[in-house]
Design a protein that fits this description.
By secondary structure, this protein is an alpha/beta fold. It is built from 22 helices and 16 strands.
């Protein structure tokens, strides 16, 4: 399948090349030239397949050149504790899509356990022999998932930048204790947007590109800006729908709403792509925390990133510049690459852009948005545990709260699937406090107390963090990120 750039539709590359490059040369994001469409009968036929096979079927529509795709998905998803994307019924018409049963216990695992295989296969197709340097800006979960996914993968190295003071203690420990000879982690002074801007600048810096090429490296991305990271996420929307139909909760062809906690807009965009591919998706409910730039955009059509930044109990959503929104804006504009490029320049220069009234109306046919305060998040966690015996993390609670708001404000009898994005233990202090506990200064003691209270088993990989040695402690300014990347490449070449 051909892919084009959101900022230069004349730039056409194959799927494998899009995965290898990550970003287009002018900074645009790769999107499919055409979206494949599944008929109702094809969706129903997925019922006979396990999750790995369902994923291979969906991903294969975009990357048909990867002949070993089925093997890739089987190997990647064998690392999960059972079903990678189980659907749990909470109440009549309310379901949780749990995406945190992978190696790092966050939804990013669904894509990032598979991406190393997609990258390796794509490099073989394109004949790319350079060492791939994966450059990641993370608000918490992507970083660890990328580090774990690419750990000691031949021909690939991973550098992760996270916002200093902008991730949970457990997220930080997961990254700074990471094993592997091909990894590097550093904190960036500032917030996630500062880290992401620094990374984007490196990707479009020709001097940095040339220097890395001299050292035998080519940059690629593990953020959802890379379509290879995004495409595995489409699969779990199809899989959850099939599971609902097979359990008798819906009939094939019935529409289902999805409520997604959103920061960088990649997870909910995957749901939008699933809808374009024929999945009967009703509303995509975009849930934000106090950093509610997406809520305002979906409500007004104006994106205004230069606003007060808040550190919240859902730090993976503490984002003001949502990179994947560019892909939606591109579609809303009628795939107008020049207009999209202008809007992204305006965002960079002025911190804002607007879409037309017609585009706004079109967006609202599918998207609805609201946000949840810190108190609402805590109350949602407590109410869910008290009433349903279900314990959820802070990000999932944002989505559950917003889903409740949607149904209070809209006459809609379609069921809703809340996308649950992380284990509660990754944010144990805030979750335990929400259910009436008193967190200990020691995060591992808090985890023990929460396990006693909830009976939810602590994942081994989280429990073992207590014994792992911290490997990375660098804290750097955003403007020094490029030098850190070059420095890593120089040292790696000498090994």
């Amino acid at each position: 399948m051909d892919f084009i750039s959101t900022r230069n539709a004349g730039r056409v590359v194959g799927g494998a090349q899009a995965v290898v490059k990550g970003l287009s040369d002018e900074g645009g994001l790769f999107v499919p030239a055409l979206f494949p469409v599944f008929a109702k009968e094809e969706i129903a036929a997925m019922a006979e397949l396990d999750y790995a096979s369902r994923a291979a079927l969906v991903i294969g529509k975009f990357l048909p050149e990867l002949s070993e795709l089925s093997s890739y998905t089987e190997k990647a998803y064998s690392r999960f504790d059972g079903d990678p994307a189980p659907v749990v019924k909470i109440d009549e018409g309310l379901f949780m899509l749990e995406l945190w049963h992978g190696p790092t216990h966050a939804f990013k695992d669904v894509a990032l356990t598979l991406l190393p295989y997609l990258l390796t296969g794509s490099k073989a197709v394109t004949g790319e022999n350079s060492r791939t340097l994966i450059l990641v800006a993370t608000s918490g979960d992507t970083g660890k998932a990328a580090l774990e996914g690419f750990r000691d993968v031949p021909g690939a190295d991973v550098i992760v930048f996270y916002p200093s003071g902008g991730v949970s203690e457990l997220q930080k420990l997961q990254m700074t204790t990471q094993k592997g000879d091909n990894v590097y982690v550093a904190a960036i002074e500032g917030n996630f947007d500062d880290a992401q801007t620094a990374v984007k600048k490196i990707f479009t810096d020709k001097e940095a590109e040339a220097k890395l090429a001299e050292l035998g490296f080519k940059l690629s991305s593990a953020n959802s800006m890379n379509f290879g990271r995004l495409v595995p996420q489409i699969a779990y929307y199809f899989s959850s729908y099939v599971d609902l139909a097979e359990s008798g909760e819906i009939e094939y062809g019935d529409e289902v709403n999805f409520c997604v906690p959103s920061g960088n807009f990649g997870n909910i965009l995957a749901g939008y792509y699933a809808k374009k591919m024929g999945l009967p998706v009703g509303r995509l409910i975009c849930a934000s925390n106090r950093n509610n730039v997406l809520t305002d955009f979906i409500g007004s059509g104006k994106y205004a990133a230069r606003r007060k930044f808040y550190k919240t109990t859902s730090p993976s959503m503490d984002i003001l510049v949502s990179s994947n929104l560019e892909r939606l804006v591109f579609e809303l504009s009628g795939r107008n690459d020049k207009l999209t490029a202008e809007r992204m320049r305006s965002l960079l220069d002025a911190g804002t852009y607007s879409i037309s009234a017609a585009e706004l109306d079109e967006m609202k046919k599918t998207f609805w948005a609201a946000w949840a305060s810190e108190k609402e998040v805590a109350d949602t966690i407590a109410d869910s545990f008290d009433e349903d015996g279900y314990i959820m993390d802070t990000h999932t609670a944002v989505a559950k709260c917003v889903a409740d708001k949607y149904y209070l404000e809209n006459e809609d009898d379609r069921p809703v699937v809340v996308v649950s994005t992380a284990s509660p233990y990754k944010f144990a202090s805030d979750v335990y406090r929400a259910i009436g506990g008193k967190p200990s200064p020691d995060p591992f003691k808090t985890i023990e107390l929460m396990e006693e209270e909830t009976a939810l088993p602590v994942p081994d990989s989280i429990a073992e963090l207590k014994t792992l040695k911290k490997r990375f402690s660098d804290v750097i300014a955003p403007e020094d990120a490029e030098a850190a990347v070059i420095g890593y490449a120089e040292k790696a070449k000498r090994k």
